[in-house]
Amino acid sequence: AGTQTSQLLVDPPWTPTVLWDRVTLTCQGSGTVGATTWYKDRQQWGQKGPDHVTVTESGTYRCDTPNSGLNPPVRV
Question: Coiled-coil annotation: which residues (predicted)?
Fold first, then answer.
């Protein structure tokens, strides 16, 4: 079976993603609670944590999970 990459879901789902008030990012494909590593602008952002975060600053976000690997970047 091929390796499945994680997927970063954005709420609200506007395209392009616009930071009005706050944006919730959800990393799908984690499989392990509390094991998601978040990145902002190519640097690790905080500790390993939940599969969703609320974003209040613009930047390029990615998530990395043990089972699915690094997702394509999402710009907010």
Answer: none
